[in-house]
Amino acid sequence: MTVRMTATAARRTRRTVLQAAVNSGARCARQNLDPALFFRADSEGADSEGGEAVAWQARRAAAIGVCALCPVRAACEELALRDGDGDRATDDLVRGGVSGQNLAITREIRQADRITAATAADRDDEWQQLVELTVAARTEALKNPDRRSAGGPRKSAQSQAAQNRRIHSLTEQIRTIRTARRARTGWGAAA
Known about the structure:
The protein is mainly α.
């Protein structure tokens, strides 16, 4: 079961984590829905009249309905904002339960500075260092120190203590970087 992600949590989350949440928990993917549901067809262009426009409006409403119940809707919307999806002049897609026009308005007017900071943070070297430290901490935590020590309980305790020190050092580095990044971008302290 996928955990529901709030808009606040999505804003504070890096792109790789958002993408992983969408990949594993998106309602549209779990139900194997046709991606065409979420995009306006070329034959339904802005100049089309009648049936094509009505068909898109019905599909758009259905897509928004699917997204409304999705546990990772906020993550999907945040990715769409960071990816630059949507156009103010064209009603051509639904992503994260929001039309392309509304995504563009949100990105350009309401949250322009925050989105710019978030996309820059997704690409910087410090973020890459944070990812590498997190992987190293998880890898270290999964190691079994008892397998390396053949010297009995005392040696096992020493191996465990050494592993704990390595993990503590890595998590302290992660905490320091995260705290500094959040302070710089105005997102506050970690929850």
